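Pasting two entries for a bug report.
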Amino acid sequence: MPSKYLLILLIFFMISCGKPQPTNEEIEKAFQEVNNETLWKELKEMVYMDQYYRGMSSGLDKSAPNYQKQRDSIWELQLAVDHKNTKRIIEITEKYGLTNPQRTGQPIGAWLLLHHAPEEYHDEIKPLVEREFKAKRMDPRTYALIKWTLNGREGLPELPESEIIDNR
């Protein structure tokens, strides 16, 4: 009997461990070794597509008789883009850390892809956001905004305590 419990415990342990997370040193090394131009181009395209249909939707005439149909069609396209972008930004962030202008020297707002991630990815993104913030690859305001989104956009985004300024 004891071996049965040991086997169950071992299986539980293996499942709960999931995939191994890279260390900050491994992430920085991978970031330094990546073909930056190829990655920057991919990220710029992802951010562009993130905004493309959103911009198109905001330009619709709300008084048009087919407004709702047009809006629904555009949002269906946007959702497909959001799913594709989210899967890829998770892969990129897991391997290279969050790319931001301070790290890349490029004006790429990759955080926007996490901000617009469909809800079904939120549980996967939460620990990634925590890791990136603790590693200082995500600034406090971006962290607060993404956490606010991941937690259902209730109330106002809360800055980490270290970022609150008391001007009394």
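Entry 2 (this is the one that rendered wrong in the viewer):
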Amino acid sequence: MAPGVLAAIASDTRTVAARRDNPMNQFIPILVAMVGGIAVAMQAKFIGLMDQRMGTLESVFVTYGLGSVLATGLICLARGGNLKHWSAVPWYALTAGFFGLIIVLSISYTVPRLGLVSGLTLLTASQYAIAVVIDHYGLFESVVRPLDAGRVVGLGLLLLGVWLIVR
């Protein structure tokens, strides 16, 4: 990726409301989310394979080691990007790497034992459940998005879907 592309990604600070004004403004974020979803499934499968052959901690080590090398290369291409602003980040946001480790550990351990679909279904449903709480209360500087009847029904359907998939 060219440094200009990395800088554009890093500096995209437009508000969600501004992006919703034009449906075409949502195309790239939707595409990026879909590519990310595909990457999650592929990574989960590959981490599970490594877990079966090397072990959970070893598969996490390989995953984070390679990820660190690639992230270092990208930040070097971006000439440091906005790293100089790290002190403006809330302290709790700096724990993201810790949560990333939990994600990779849980995927590595769960996928070989429950299967790819069941493991990712439980992971995804858990994400939605905590996201609703974070949005409802506006935690961690989130925009408040109250839990309404539609979201409650959606969560109920999600739980039904989890039960149907995992049972």
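Dev reply: Rendering is fixed now. As a check, the viewer should reflect this: The helical segments are 3-10, 16-20, 27-54, 56-77, 96-114, 116-137, 149-166.
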